[in-house]
Every structure is written in C-alpha cells, then in structure tokens.
Design a protein that fits this description.
- By secondary structure, the protein is mostly helical.
- The protein has a single domain, classed as Four Helix Bundle (Hemerythrin (Met), subunit A) (Up-down Bundle).
- A two-stranded antiparallel ribbon has the order 1-2.
- Helix 2 packs antiparallel against helix 3, helix 3 runs parallel beside helix 6 and helix 9 packs antiparallel against helix 10.
- The termini are far apart.
C-alpha cells in the first residue's frame, strides 16, 4: 500500500493544478495562485515521501513531471495570460485595438519550455547537486504571482514589463545556467550559508509584501545564483 502514497500525493498536485487553471479562466486569479502554492506543497511531499518510504520508481518520476507540466507550466501561464489581457485595457485605445491585443498569447510558450525543462531534468545527472536552468516551480511562483506584486509595485502592472519578464523567464527554463538547490543535506551553517541567507531574505520579503513577495524572492534567487557562478568557478579552479 505504501508504494502508492507518493503517486497519490502527485495526483493531488495535478488536481490542484487543474483547479488553478479553472479558477484562472474565471478571473479568480488569487485563488488560482494559491492553488499553485498548494501544488508546490504536494510536489515537495511526493518526493519526500518516496525517499522516506524508499519506494522511488521510474513511474513516479514520470507522473511527477506530467503533473508539474500542468501545475507549474499551464496553470501559471493561464494566470499571467488573464492578467496580461487585463493590462491590455490600461494601454491607449490605439494600441488596444491593434495587433497588440494578440501579444498575451505569446506566453503559452512557457508550458512548452516547462515540458522541455522537466524532460531534461529527468535525464541530466548534473542536476542532483544543483539545477541547470530555472526550476519550473520557481518560474510558476514568479509568473503566477505577478498580479499580487502589481498591487504594491507599479512596475509589475506595466503590460510591456510583464510580457517581457514572462518571455525572459521562459528562456531561463531551458538555459544551462547553474542555479543553487535549496535541498539541505545537513543543517551545518557553514555548508548551507547561502541557503540560510536566502531563506532569511525570503522571510523578510514575505513579511513586507506578503504573497506579492514571491516574484521578488525568485528574482533574488536568480541573482544569487548568478553571483555564485564566478565564486564557485574560482573555488573549483583553486582546488585544481
């Protein structure tokens, strides 16, 4: 019976993602975003339970990726698509009535990139220690919560800024940029210094911006990863 527990949790991830899409299409973006958070919780616990129960399997990996394409690919894309269609109304009448109103459809490149990224992750041995490219849950927390951030940060209520950011993040999904993992192998401060500092910054941002902090936290995560690239390269070179 226990071998089915992780797959059951993965199924909950998928159902939550489907419900997120449903609420997004009805304009209930807050609920849709919260359901992505719920999916992320299920996504954490399915892998955790598989390791704890020692029932990891290729089928579980496939199910996890399929669920993630929906919950962290299609669902957040639907949210940001609806958000962008709302932002189109803030443009001048001349732009609103032109081809510009078709641009929000460009964001549906995100699910395709997410599927590619997940397939690559499943077969890339390097990603046991660090991520290569932006993880799909991180991308989902960014694009799926931009409408929350827009309430306190005017920059995120600009149609062109939001569209550009979504397309940039779609590319980040499939890049080969190393990004640090938040998985703790132990709790030693020295070995997890970057993770502890990042989590502290994330906690402060959540206190200030609440759910609107999610996109800002992901931006901090990306910039931290970029800063670590030359530092880790220097350390590797020094050891050689």
């Amino acid at each position: 019976m226990k071998k089915h527990v992780p797959n059951l949790i993965t199924s909950c991830n998928l159902v939550s993602g489907c419900l997120s899409i449903l609420f997004a299409t009805r304009g209930m973006l807050d609920v849709a975003s919260l359901l992505i958070l719920l999916s992320a919780t299920f996504d954490f616990f399915d892998g955790f339970s598989a390791r704890m129960l020692k029932v990891q399997s290729p089928m579980g990996v496939d199910m996890d990726s399929l669920a993630d394409v929906v919950s962290f690919g299609v669902a957040p894309t639907t949210i940001v698509f609806v958000f962008l269609t709302q932002l189109v109304d803030t443009l001048s009448p001349a732009l609103r009535d032109s081809w510009v109103h078709l641009l929000p459809f460009c964001v549906f490149v995100v699910p395709a990139m997410s599927a590619f990224r997940l397939a690559k992750f499943n077969h890339d041995e390097r990603q046991h220690e660090e991520f290569r490219g932006l993880a799909t849950p991180a991308n989902a927390l960014f694009i799926g919560f931009l409408h929350f951030s827009a309430r306190s940060i005017p920059l995120f209520s600009n149609f062109w800024v939001v569209l550009t950011l979504v397309l940039i993040f779609a590319v980040l999904l499939v890049t080969d940029l190393p990004m640090f993992s938040l998985k703790f192998k132990n709790l030693r401060f020295k070995e997890n210094l970057v993770r502890y500092i990042f989590l502290l910054i994330a906690a402060v941002l959540l206190l200030i911006f609440r759910l609107g902090a999610c996109p800002i936290i992901i931006l901090v995560y990306i910039f931290t990863s970029l800063i670590l690239i030359p530092i880790n390269h220097f350390k590797h070179t020094a050891h050689e």
